[in-house]
């Protein structure tokens, strides 16, 4: 026994030594950061004369950036972790473009879309319109890539010149989605799946009850994606003179176009009008130097990225707060809707309601635009938010719902009672339906010899994952789901001045584009955020106003850590953070983000209004 004790004692000593080493490394790393912060002199950002504004579209376009704890983000980057998927704030990019158009120091824009991962057709359209407006100033927009994905090309199509690496390619694969189905796996694991839903087209639960897509889901998919794809090819065809074969979606026509160019995809891209010319990286570098002149320090063309450019303006890019003027407030609701309080990037019933309440209690705020980018989520949390919309209206402050890429299910719930609903033609909305689902493992446990037994004073259902659910219990849950659906449809009918039957006919979980939803009466007007702001001002009868984004107040700790580690990241050379992510790693990141959402399904009644077709924004 003493020998065993000696082994464990030595093992513990080794672990303790390793622990101390790690703690010392962390301590000296933080100390190094502090020394660097105090020693480094912050140089002012200089906008080069005749420089190009580089739009670094690294990640996904978003209405609001996801909150990441600055300490976690700093050490994750330092240690080479994958971290939060990269995001680009749409408003920052658009403001930078608008300011650069009137800035004599800026000679043009370079679109860097190599790491761009999309963000919804309507947001890409907003970016594209800003680029077209910039071109009207007489300054060029130029882009170069080794290859273009479909989303990358949509943005690139708004440029004057599109260059492609001679070994690159571009192909339109169209829109669609595929899902994994787990019914047979769950059966093999003897997991009991309990599903409750209302709406023939509410297919969110199908992966757990089927091994393939239902006819209703296929019909809904076809209608939605065909409409979005038609919008995509119409927009691109209007921007570039393209050979119709590359947009036809017909494999034979596409192969014929490639064959005509000796099976060279890059040459095919030039020949069919997809790109302006084929350039090596050095050829593109020389092209840009010809445009801007040589930056002797960097040995490259004169340039500044859009984030540095905005910072260099020292707040001039944004309107100064004017106490005497009225405000139109914007409250951003982005992400899945869950109960409780959440940071930016997730919609919390309590936290988003608090933002609306903050606008209601601010005497300067005369109207509110609720900017929604959400596939829905918790039914209870959605209603908590909608109640705050009603309170704003009682206070005499109109509310305009402005739909971004997605405002479906719970996302539509929180919009329904607004004074007006504005959507982009490409917005994914509707999906008026509800479901409930949970798993029990009584059969899985029995397989390994584990059982559940006990006593209860009534025979009313008790939800316990180690026990099954009898028919009475299933009936109770189904009744609550059906009641919630009736409430959903009735609320929409009352808010939209429609009959129950009119709403029910376009509900049942069906997903629509913004254009289709307007035809059915679910949306009032088609337009973007600026249109919604103007509509809010008109409703409030104000002419001169400022636009204010209502944001959650950071705690003292969050502010300190953000400032400290934000500066630390800026001080440490960028090369330390550089990490190229493979397509597989990026896809796994996306899947993992979706998997983590399962932990956020915390509706107190277990009832969810979530759009299964909608991409997570």
Automatic annotation (TrEMBL):
Origin superkingdom: Bacteria
Record keyword Protein transport present: no
UniProt keyword terms in alphabetical order: Hydrolase, Membrane, Protease, Serine protease, Transmembrane, Transmembrane helix
Record's keyword annotation contains Membrane: yes
GO cellular component: a single term: membrane
Cell compartments where the protein resides: Membrane
Coiled coil (residue ranges): none
GO biological process: signal peptide processing
Regions that span the bilayer: 21-40
GO molecular function: serine-type peptidase activity
Active site positions, chain numbering: 202 (proton donor/acceptor), 409 (nucleophile)
Domain Peptidase S49 per the UniProt entry, residue ranges: 134-289, 392-542
NCBIfam families: SppA_67K (TIGR00705), SppA_dom (TIGR00706)
Family: Belongs to the peptidase S49 family.
Name of the featured protein: Signal peptide peptidase SppA
Native source organism of the sequence: Pseudidiomarina andamanensis
Gene: sppA
């Amino acid at each position: 026994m003493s020998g065993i004790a000696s082994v464990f004692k030595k093992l513990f000593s080794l672990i303790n030594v390793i622990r101390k080493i790690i703690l010392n490394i962390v301590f000296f790393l933080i100390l190094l950061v502090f020394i660097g912060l105090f020693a480094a002199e912050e140089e002012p950002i200089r906008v080069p004369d005749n420089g190009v504004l580089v739009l670094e579209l690294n990640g996904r376009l978003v209405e609001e950036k996801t909150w990441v704890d600055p300490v976690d983000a700093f050490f994750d980057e330092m240690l080479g972790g994958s971290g939060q998927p990269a995001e680009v704030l749409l408003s920052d990019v658009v403001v930078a473009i608008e300011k650069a158009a009137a800035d004599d120091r800026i000679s043009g824009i370079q679109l860097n879309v190599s790491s761009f991962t999309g963000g919804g057709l309507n947001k890409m359209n907003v970016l594209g319109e800003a680029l077209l407006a910039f071109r009207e100033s007489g300054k060029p927009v130029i882009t170069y890539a080794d290859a273009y994905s479909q989303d990358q090309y949509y943005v690139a199509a708004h440029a004057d010149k599109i260059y492609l690496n001679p070994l690159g390619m571009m192909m339109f694969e169209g829109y669609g989605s595929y899902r994994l189905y787990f019914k047979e796996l769950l059966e093999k694991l003897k997991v009991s799946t309990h599903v409750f839903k209302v709406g023939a087209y509410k297919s969110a639960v199908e992966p757990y009850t089927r091994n393939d897509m239902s006819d209703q889901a296929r019909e809904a998919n076809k209608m939605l994606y065909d409409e979005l794809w038609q919008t995509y090819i119409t927009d691109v065809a209007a921007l570039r003179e393209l050979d119709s074969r590359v947009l036809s979606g017909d494999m034979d026509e596409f192969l014929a176009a490639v064959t005509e160019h000796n099976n060279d995809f890059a040459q095919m891209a030039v020949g069919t009008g997809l790109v302006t010319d084929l350039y090596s990286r050095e050829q593109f570098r020389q092209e840009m130097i010809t445009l801007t002149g040589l930056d002797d320090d960097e040995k490259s063309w004169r340039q500044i990225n859009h984030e540095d450019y905005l910072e260099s303006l020292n707040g001039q890019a944004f309107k100064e707060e004017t106490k005497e003027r009225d405000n139109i407030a914007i409250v951003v609701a982005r992400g899945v809707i869950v109960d409780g309080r959440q940071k930016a990037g997730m919609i919390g019933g309590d936290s988003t309601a608090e933002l609306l309440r903050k606008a209601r209690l601010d005497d300067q705020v005369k109207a509110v635009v609720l900017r929604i980018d959400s596939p829905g989520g918790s039914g209870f949390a959605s209603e908590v938010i909608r109640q705050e919309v009603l309170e704003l209206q009682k206070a005499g402050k109109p509310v305009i719902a402005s739909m971004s890429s997605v405002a479906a299910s719970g996302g539509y719930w929180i919009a329904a009672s607004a004074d007006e609903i504005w959507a982009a033609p490409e917005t994914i909305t509707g999906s008026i339906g509800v479901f409930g689902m949970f798993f029990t493992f009584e059969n899985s446990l029995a397989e390994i010899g584990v059982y559940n037994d006990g006593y209860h004073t009534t025979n009313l259902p008790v939800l316990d994952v180690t026990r099954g659910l009898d028919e009475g219990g299933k009936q109770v849950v189904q009744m609550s789901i059906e009641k919630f659906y009736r409430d959903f449809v009735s609320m929409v009918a009352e808010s939209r001045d429609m009959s129950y039957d009119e709403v029910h006919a376009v509900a049942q979980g069906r997903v629509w584009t913004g254009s289709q939803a307007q035809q059915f009466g679910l949306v009032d007007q088609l337009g973007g955020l600026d249109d919604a702001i103007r509509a809010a001002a008109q409703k409030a009868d104000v002419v001169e106003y400022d636009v204010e984004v209502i944001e959650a107040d950071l705690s003292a700790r969050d502010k300190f850590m953000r400032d400290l580690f934000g500066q630390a990241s800026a001080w440490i050379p960028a090369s330390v953070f550089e990490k190229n992510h493979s397509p597989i790693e990026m896809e796994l990141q996306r899947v993992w983000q979706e998997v983590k959402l399962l932990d956020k399904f915390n509706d107190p009644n277990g009832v969810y209004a979530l759009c299964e077709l909608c991409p997570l924004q």
